[in-house]
Design a protein that fits this description.
alpha+beta, 124 residues, rod-shaped, single chain, 1 helix
Length: 124
Amino acid sequence: MRARTREEGFTLIEVLVALAIIAVAMSAAVRVAGLMTQSSGVLRDRSVAMIAAQSRMAELRLEGRLPNGMKAVECDQGRLMLRCEQVIASAENGRLLKVGIQVFDRNQDAPPLAKLETLLTRPQ
């Protein structure tokens, strides 16, 4: 009678389970990479929108006349189609003006990408 030799190695079930675990881990890694890329794009857009708000604020300071009320102007920055909404109102003490600027993406109906508020002296 012949003695059975024990063969070493993995069974087909063990290999399939290992492949399933690796596939789940890889799909999670791809998902995380996609979210990081999307998040990076949003942060870039917000940074560019803040630059647009600061530019609009500088324009208002240089114009020298600050009429009260709300005004919306296009303030595109490169490929980003932006809309700057400025609100100018008297501050509580009467000698200063409260200036607020919000920057929106013109292609989306979404909350503002950037907000900027400051107090400016009234022009003489």
